[in-house]
Structure formats: C-alpha cells, structure tokens
Amino acid sequence: MKTLAVAAALAALALLPASAAAEPTAADLEAEIVCPTCKTTLDQSDAPIARRMKAYIRARLAAGASGEEIKQELVDQFGPGVLAEPPKRGFDLLAWLLPLGGLAVGAVAVGVAVWAWSRRRTDAEPDDALDPDLDRRVDEELARFEP
Amino acid sequence: MGARVKLAAQGLALAAVVGLLGLLVWGVLDDGGGGAAAELASGEHPLAPALVLERLDEDGTLDLADLRGKGVVVNFWASWCIPCKDEAPFLQSVYERDRDRGLVVLGVDSQDFGADARRFIKRFGLTYPNVHDGRGETLGGWGVVGFPETFFVDRQGRLVGQRIQGGVDAERNREAFEQGVELALAGS
Fold it and tell me: Chain B residues with CB-CB distance to A under 8 A?
C-alpha cells in the first residue's frame, strides 16, 4: 500500500512538467516558427516579417490563444513551411519515421553481416584433432621429460 | 543461392547509394530555375505564369488569364516592405491614368498577413485589384526574389519589357517602367 502511494506520488510529479509544457511561451513558439523570407526560426531573425510574426504571437498569447492555435493560424497564413518541425501526423509523420526506419534497417543489416561473418570464421577454423604423426611426436617428446 | 542473394543485396545497396548521390547533386545544382524572370532576362517573352488567388479588395478569386486582352502591370508586394509603401501611390496614379487605355495594375501581396495587407490597401487608397498569396506559392514560377518586383504582361498574356526589382523610382527605373506599360498596352 505504501509502495503504491509512493508510485502514485512519483507519477503525479512526472506529469507536472508535462502539463506545464503544454502552454508554450512566446520564446518557445519563436523557436518553433520559421520566418518565411529568411528561412531561420523567428528567434534568430530580425527580418520585418519576423518582427511582425513575433508581435502577432505575443498578441495572440495575451488574448489567451493556445500554442497550437497560434501555430495553426500561422500555417493558415503562410503555409506549413513556417513550422520548424513537421507535424507528427498524416503524411508529415513520415519525416519522423523514415530516419528511425533507416536506423532500424541499418542495425539489422549490421547484425546480419556480423552474424554471417562470425559463422564463416567458425566454419573456416581447422579441426581441433591433431595430426596422428604430430600427436605421436608430442607424446614421445613429453615422455623424454618423464622421470 | 547464397551468392545470388548477396549479389542482389550488394546491387540494391549500390543503387541506394547512387540514388542518394543523385538527389544530393540535384539539390545542390537546382536553384529553382529563376522562373519566368530568367526567361525574360534572356530575351524571351514567355506566357505569364498562372496566377489564381484570393482577392483582398473584394470577395472571390482573380485569375490573371481572365485579364487577357488588357495590358497588366503585376506588382509583387508585402505590407512590411518599405519600398512597397513608397511606390504604392505611384502605382495607383498609373492605374488611374491608363485604366481607360486598357491597363490593369494587379497587386500580389505575398508572405504577409491578409489583415495587414487590407490595412495597407486602405491606408494608400488603392483601387486596383489586389490578391493575396500568403504562402508565396507564385513567387518561384515568376522568379520573384524580393519585394517589390514588377512585371509587365501584354494583351496576349506574354511577359514584356524588363522586370523591375525594387521600388519604382523616378531616377532609377521610371523610364523602364513607362516603357513596360507601353509594351503591355501595344497591340490589340
């Protein structure tokens, strides 16, 4: 029972930062939105349209809009190219999955190659059994040292 | 059988590498082609690229093709662009001056908030048609690289004259502008 209570408390603590992160600040959004003319994120740009977009973000946050709402409004105005990261849904999800898929395929390929290589080495190893002549000579030599 | 599988895998890997290299080379070499502006600069008179956009001055869309038979001054602008503010009154005066001769000035507001663009139109009292391309999707086809830029389209829908980069200015490019207007209005 005590363990359960501790686990529940830890889970609640773990959820706290997640709920705090659900509402981004203006600085957070400026790092996630790209200036359409200079192609850098807003926090890195001083272009006129970037300044205007920063002002828009601050005004919308002050009006109570959520980060997702603001991003969607900017996408509606300027297109999906203003998002620094592609959304994790629909066709754009491929941009996230393909690199992971590539890594997985690469890992499997390396694993298979290593396995095949180690098998070849095992097959190529010589038989442990000694040549009978050599075996006899070794025995003879060892016998010389016996008292 | 094992050797065949190995050979096939090697072939696939090689094809993947060659494909990726090809993509890299294409990405490095492809600069977008410069659009219609590059053709115009090389002395050609291509058909003006398609332009069908939402209107800012009234409801509905405007299709450049519907203006065939008129001379058109196509002006790309944005409300945050300072030279655009400087040239707007001049463009309005040209529209009023030559409208009866069959000239249309068409403003294409791009990479801009629609609400900002409407305020701009109201502030400068612009009565010529203006459309909105917030995403900048038409810029590549025309070869627009900055704001403002101005093109001239003749009555047959072909680009004529010179592309004017930057604001229309009395000392710098007014002569080229007036020549573009006359070429756009030439013919019937």
Answer: 78, 80-82, 111-114, 116, 134-137
Q: What is the DSSP letter of A38?
A: T
ipTM for this prediction: 0.77
The parts of chain B modelled with pLDDT lower than 70 are 1-2, 27-33, 187-188
Residue carrying structure tokens 């095949």: A116
Beta strands B103-110; B130-133: pairing state: parallel
Integer Cα distance of B120 and B91 in angstroms: 14
Cβ within 8 Å of residue B2, ≥6 positions away? none
Q: With an 8 Å Cβ cutoff, are A52 and B113 in contact?
A: yes
Structure tokens at A140: 């003879």
CA distances from B118 to A141, B42, B75, B88 (A): 105, 36, 16, 13
Contact in structure between B154 and B71 (CB atoms under 8 Å): yes
Q: What integer pLDDT is reported at residue A64 of this predicted model?
A: 96
Residue B113: name the closest of A111, A72, A78, A110 by CA: A78
Phi (first) and psi of residue B104, to 5 degrees = -120, 130
Whether a cis peptide bond, with omega within 30° of 0, leads into A86 is no
